[in-house]
Specification:
Blueprint: E1 11-15, E2 23-25, E3 32-38, E4 52-56, H1 59-64, E5 79-86
């Protein structure tokens, strides 16, 4: 889904495996990992779509993204860059 309105399009994704790059929420029994993705291809802009992606964190690019007023139904999350969608799972 769309994340908060920003100077660049951001999409909130849930990462199904533990990831040190994502934002962890929930408790230890039910952890949830989310990220606001830059450069997410339009082909995966659909709710409940499972896909694999190569990602990285880019602090310089992240600092250039300005979030506008966000009616946050979710808390703040790390902003990551999608390098591409892949067919097979890959290591972090």
């Amino acid at each position: 889904m769309n994340y908060c309105p920003a100077t660049e399009p951001l999409y909130l994704v849930e990462i199904l495996s533990p990831s040190s790059l994502a934002t962890k929420s929930g408790d230890d029994a039910n952890p949830r990992y989310t990220a606001a993705m830059l450069d997410l291809p339009a082909s995966v802009h659909a709710r409940d779509t499972i896909f694999y992606m190569q990602i990285h964190r880019d602090p310089v690019r992240e600092s250039k993204v300005t979030l506008n007023f966000c009616p946050a139904i979710f808390g703040p999350t790390n902003i990551l860059v999608c390098e591409g969608i892949v067919e097979q799972p890959c290591a972090e």
